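I am writing to request your help with a piece of structural work I have in hand. Thank you for your consideration; the sequence and its tokens are set out here:
=====
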Amino acid sequence: MRIVFAVFVFLVIQVAPLFSQSASIDTLLKQASLKARNDDVPGASALLLEATKLAEKANNTQQLCEIQILAGKIGLISENDQAAKAAITLAEKYCTACRDTQNMANALLQKGVLHTKEQQFDSAVYDFKTSAGLFMLRKDTLPSINALAKVGNVLEERGQYAEAQQYYLQFYEFVKNKPESN
């Protein structure tokens, strides 16, 4: 009985800090997201750096994935393409490691935006289509159709108007048939 109690106490002492650390990382992520929405890029970046340190210490790939997705978003919003590219690369690594298809789809969406800015249109179309496919696997139709609309935007920018129109029609049909849009 004493051995069982000792093992229980040991486990509680070892595991309890991980739960509080995970909660503090989530809090930092939420605060960083709020700062990003309020255009406080330096504040959001500082919080993400702190969250990254904690998540790396805890070896929490899921939270590292989420951190890098937000870092990529901040990089894109602030027009810091180099920071966005680095964050997206890490996000793909962490999202693959923890098998997070939702955030992988978000990373590919961000990557497609970067490729579009760099006029790497074939890569952008591939990224947006792959992102749409991952969103559809999760039956997450709104971001999926958004990604397909972005394919249309890229094709239009390339002068492929007939192909772009097909993607815009898919977007239109989705919006037209969505219950809350009627």
Q: What stands out?
A: The CA atoms of residues 155 and 163 lie 7 Å apart. The chain has eight helices and no strands. The radius of gyration is 20 Å. The helical segments are 2-37, 41-58, 61-77, 81-97, 101-117, 121-137, 141-157, 161-177.
